[in-house]
Amino acid sequence: MASDRDLWERARGGDAEAFGDLYERHARAVQSYCLWRTADLQVAEDATATVFLEAWRKRGHLTLSTDSAAPLLLGIANNVVRRQWRSQRRYRDALERVRNVGPIPNDLEAEAIARLDAIQQLREGGEAIRKLPRREREVLALLAWSDLSYGEIAEALGLPVGTVRSRLARARTRLGDAFPDTTAARPAEETL
Amino acid sequence: MTKPKPDLSPLLPDDATLKARRSALVDAVGPGGQGPRPAPAWRRRGPRLALGGGVALAAVAVALIVSAGGDNPSKAFAVKPQKGGGVTIKIYSLEDASGLEQALEEAGIKSQVTWLPAGKVCREPHYKPSIVHFPGGGSFGGMNMGGPGGITIGISSTKALRESFGQRRRGEISADEVANITLDPEAFRPDQSVVLSGTPAPYDGDPEGGSITKMGVAEGPVEPCKLVPALPSGFGAFGFSEGGGPAYAPRGDEALPQAAITADLRQAANSAEASDTQVEAPPGPGQYLYAKTKVVQLQGWLPKGHGKGSKTHPRYFVPINDPSAHYALVPALKEVWTAPDGKTHVRETLGRVNFLSSANQRLWDDAGSPPPWAFDPSEHDVSRDGSGRRLKDFAANSFRGRHEFTYMSRLSRLPTEPEALRLAVENRRGGSSPLDPSPAESPRGGATVERLLEILSEPIASPALRAAAFNALAEIPGIGFERDVTDGAGRRGDAISWVRENGFGRRFIFDPHTGKVLAEAEMIFGPKASEEYGAPADTPYRETAYLQAGIVNSTHERLK
By the 8 A CB rule, do B468 and B524 touch? Predict the structure, then answer.
């Protein structure tokens, strides 16, 4: 299986199929993150597509400094969520095309109920983080809702690792018991 | 320390959707992304046809193709063994239906496969729909798929499927190796079989660039497929509110023969065809969609001393479910300016409150004409206009939010051929249930009528689309038709109406000379509702009369 680096290099050279592979690999992670940030399915779906369109447009200027494309894409996601409308307007036509694709569920009600439940949980689960000041919110959101390490978060947000740590410490003080569980499914690296 | 993270999976795309979106993305960014479009990527790769979309119920049906190589593009489909037992069948082109039936049979699944010419689907129902229950939970009743790409059917035991799904989740198997749907022969009863049909469909400017495929589960015998026109592409994302209901019955002039109703609706279609479009396109940057309506609501007034709610701010106007209330029709002029991002500016101006009885009108006047709650200055920011009418301005979001205009532009892409339009709105829920177009006998039919009427109510609907909607309505038997009724703005027209068992119903009033919907109303029709609320039959309890719609350049601008 080609690495993210290979795929990204091919995408930078204009290979749309390689870029498609990256999409398949990371779209769910990006969408999960956007869901957490926005707690709105339609907004998150549009934001996800926007992230990839933005990545494609800027591919010439962006290099992967990690083995995974996730920090790069989640960094873009962070900006897209922050400037939702402005980013999406640029890609209106393309978004329309991506949005129209998809299945018709056989059981709309069951699906709708499952979605409502999940949205409800999202809203409750992310409430504390969404109330934080922006800088702390962005760092903590990436820590809580993506599988990025501290180093990768720093990469995604273009910050030194030390700044990531200090912002997290401030968020921890502010949130107290409401500080989210960030221990799950995390590689060992971030204990550095 | 904290609650575990919620499961987001209902909010994430399934594999088939992910693949479909990937292909749309690749098309959007690829060489044809700007300017002329190349053929879809799947076609350039050789294999021809049919992309998968939806897996419906709990048994998220995903499987693996063991060997990625060795495909023979010259064949209509390829059968490959799977690692954990079973096979996958990858369909490349909509040919050799009997060969595919045989391959499915050999793998343990009885089937009827029908490949249809472009623009056709099987008329439903041609079999009795059924549901397969998988061992250990989950079920499958069918699915529709649309878009570019190639469908892959997996056939394996549910156990093997779950194991491979685990590998997939752990990243041991790439997403390329995933089937669109996996069937477990053990889960099928002897009388159950799969019904598969597919047709090429327009995709990305190419009339046969994509496909629509449909898989159902049948119980007992399957009738041969009878061809009818197909759905338009992009139909999957089209949403209307659910309508109809089991207790739904047409209401109207019973003396009117069906032929007369049909003739009137055809005439309305001709008028619609010859009329103009109110709004040609959604607003661009800096523009607003301006819509003016008159909304009339039935409200109850409680004389002084009988107010409801808090002691300091009692409410004297209540919804119509209070037997001690005096009923009045409360009209308001509602103007809405909607920006391209779905944000709206709303102005509501209160009209003259009309009590159903003149005695109550006097009682209310003598009490100092207290305003309805929505215009009560102690509750809301209410001012007065030059004529002394109470009004309020506020910002809101369109109920369809930022998708308002996406919705509208989708509307403009609906087919303008009546049968295709009817199927497009009728098959919205997946088309896997029997279809009965009669509103008198089925909730589906009722929903179809309601959706066609909603299309007619949209200001952006083109003359051709409105004509198609009227012609589609003309084909539906048992519609309730009322001649010469008056809307909340005093305009006369004909109406399509129905009533539910509880005595409440809906009425869409249209102008037979222009084919435009004048108003839609939720009505008190039957004695049951009428007795319960003490309001005479034929009273609207909420009516929206459409007065004007068009594009303007500011939230102060109105239409001439």
Answer: no
Q: Around Cβ B172, how many Cβ atoms within 10 Å?
A: 9
- For residue range B141-179, what is the model confidence (pLDDT) as tens digits? 776 666 555 577 888 887 777 776 666 656 666 545 567
Q: How many CB pairs below 8 Å do chains A and B form together?
A: 169
**Which has the minimum average pLDDT: A58-62, A100-104, A168-172, B451-455?**
A100-104
ipTM of the complex: 0.83
Contact indicator for B253, B237 with CB cutoff of 8 Å: no
pLDDT digits (tens, 9 = 90+) for B56-105: 222 222 222 222 233 444 478 888 887 777 888 888 777 888 899 999 99
**Cβ–Cβ under 8 Å, residues B22 and A20:** yes
Model confidence, pTM: 0.46
Beta bridge partners of B354: B329
Q: Residue A77 burial (CB < 10 Å; 0-12/13-18/19+)?
A: buried
Is B56 close to A107, i.e. CB distance below 8 A? yes
* Inter-CA distances, B535 with A168, B51, B78, B488, B492, Å: 63, 55, 68, 17, 22
Q: Is residue B295 less than 8 Å (CB to CB) from chain A? A: no
Which residues face B87 on adjacent strands? Answer: B81, B155
Determine the 3-state secondary structure of A159 from DSSP. Answer: coil
Q: Does pLDDT of B265 surpass 90?
A: yes
Output B452 or A183, whichever has higher pLDDT.
B452
Q: Which one of B1, B12, B43, B402 would you mutate to disrupt binding with A, by most A Cβ within 10 Å of its Cβ? A: B12
Q: Would you give the DSSP letter of residue B370?
A: P
The SS3 call for residue B411 is: helix
Supply the angle between the helices A92-99 and A41-57 in degrees, to the nearest 10.
120
What rounded mean pLDDT belongs to chain B? 73
For residue B90, what is the enclosing H or E element?
A: strand B87-91
- Which of A106, A115, A122 should be substituted to probe chain B, the one whose Cβ sees the most B Cβ atoms within 10 Å? A106
Bigger pLDDT: A22 vs A94: A22
Predicted confidence at residue B347, as pLDDT, reads 93
Interface of B with A in 182-221 (CB under 8 A): 204
A28 vs B contacts (CB less than 8 Å): 12-13, 18
User: Higher-confidence residue: A26 or B538?
Assistant: A26
Quote the CA–CA distance of A137 and A37 in Å, as a whole number: 9
More confident site: B395 or B351: B351
Q: What size, in residues, is chain A?
A: 192
Measured between CB atoms, which of A114, A119, A181 is closest to B2? A181
Q: Is B432 in contact with A106 (Cβ distance < 8 A)?
A: yes
Would an 8 Å CB–CB cutoff place B429 in contact with chain A? yes
Q: What radius of gyration do chain B's Cα atoms show? A: 28
- Model confidence at A24, pLDDT cuts 50, 70, 90, reads very high
pLDDT of residue B22: 85
For residues B215 and B432, give the distance between their C-alpha atoms in angstroms, rounded to a whole number.
Answer: 8
Contacts of B278 (CB under 8 A, 6+ apart): B459, B460, B516, B549, B550
Residue with tokens 């009878």: B226
Task: Find how far residue B398's CA is from the centre of its chain.
Answer: 17
Residue B60's CB is within 10 A of a number of other CB atoms, namely: 16
Minimal-distance CA residue of chain B relative to A15: B30
Overall average pLDDT of the B542-549 stretch:
91
The residue with tokens 């909730």 is: B443
pLDDT at B230 over 60: no
Cβ neighbour number for residue A40 with a 10 Å cutoff: 18
Nearest CA-CA partner of B249 in B528, B511, B544, B493 = B528
